[in-house]
């Protein structure tokens, strides 16, 4: 039997402010160069790739064209050949109920009873398509093959440092909205300038504590602090060992910046509560910036239960009325932090995903894909 080329179709993202992409031009170029010998003994391309135009994607459409991709209009995936895999990151356009006939690879947010999950899966069932969810692509050890955690921690720590510097140099003025950076160099040099200004104005370099420091987000947060020039002695790294006795931890008030990066898998006592912020020790509170990368605000075991709303790039900061001191206590809880650096976030994600995308050519037998296929079947059963 003659093997057929696998058709990947990169759709445009329609979610507001989403500049990231699941396949970079570099990844496309590499995929298009993949060759295999078919049953007739001839060499053939493993993939062909169609890329939709997009007004918000961080990479220009010409880069995809140069990589050898075919270009299509935004939203043209609806009429893509039936065997094409439709690749994206975030939600499909809202207010659409048409049946979905393709196999879609993206973050469907449909398997943890999220709003609208039944309607989405029912659309797949009606159209005969499948959701092959990016969030559930796991390796043999059950670890996600690709995730945005590193860049989330990196971006979260960056916003924390920038906010701290802002509060030193412009006390009492609101922290402005955040715009994405073209690359991490630009972000790091901006932060170095901001910290230098704060220090020139009389502030000491801040001490920052990262909880969950050994994980993906935590590693990214610590790396950013190092690159921004924070002295190693001023970066405090906590993980399971340091929190094993259970919170609250009033000693957290001694650090200027707290970055929470834990993966909350089981109930734990809180790290810091509204009451902790009122203890005598809090009179000497240094803590003025909390970045909650984990953003477990709706979880009953949220380890930072003194605030209850997430924040956004447009309004990044929530002021917490805290205690007797005049030091502000600002919380940043943005649940889409990697968007701060769309190019690096996309590049890292596409690199981590590469080997798994290669296996799409054997989608019916490759374990990583049959697992998500089974998950789809189970979750959509009976709809
Ligand atoms: N805000 C965003 O934009 C964004 C983006 C990606 C991920 N996240 C979230 O960040 C969280 C972490 O993700 P990750 O990929 O880094 O997870 P991970 O599993 O790679 O790392 C989590 C780390 O937390 C540590 N940890 C768990 N419980 C702890 C505790 N009680 N005390 C101290 N350390 C503890 C673990 O040992 C591990 O080192 C997740 O909740 C994820 O959903 C947020």
Automatic annotation (TrEMBL):
Oxidoreductase recorded as keyword: yes
Domain (Alanine dehydrogenase/pyridine nucleotide transhydrogenase NAD(H)-binding) ranges: 187-333
Keyword list, A-Z: Amino-acid biosynthesis, Disulfide bond, NAD, Oxidoreductase
Pfam family, one: AlaDh_PNT_N
Catalytic activity annotation: L-saccharopine + NAD(+) + H2O = L-lysine + 2-oxoglutarate + NADH + H(+)
Any single GO BP term: lysine biosynthetic process via aminoadipic acid
Any one Gene Ontology cellular component term annotated for this protein: cytoplasm
Disulfide bonds: 217-261
The protein's annotated pathway: Amino-acid biosynthesis; L-lysine biosynthesis via AAA pathway; L-lysine from L-alpha-aminoadipate (fungal route): step 3/3
Gene3D superfamilies registered for this protein in UniProt: NAD(P)-binding Rossmann-like Domain
Residues at the active site: 90 (proton acceptor), 109 (proton donor)
InterPro entries according to UniProt: AASS, AlaDH/PNT_N, AlaDH/PNT_NAD(H)-bd, Lys1, NAD(P)-bd_dom_sf
EC number: 1.5.1.7
Binding of NAD(+), residues: 143, 215-216, 239, 243, 263, 293, 334-337
Molecular function GO terms recorded: saccharopine dehydrogenase (NAD+, L-lysine-forming) activity
Domain Alanine dehydrogenase/pyridine nucleotide transhydrogenase N-terminal stretches: 9-155
Protein name: Saccharopine dehydrogenase [NAD(+), L-lysine-forming]
Lineage, opening ranks: Eukaryota, Filasterea, Capsaspora
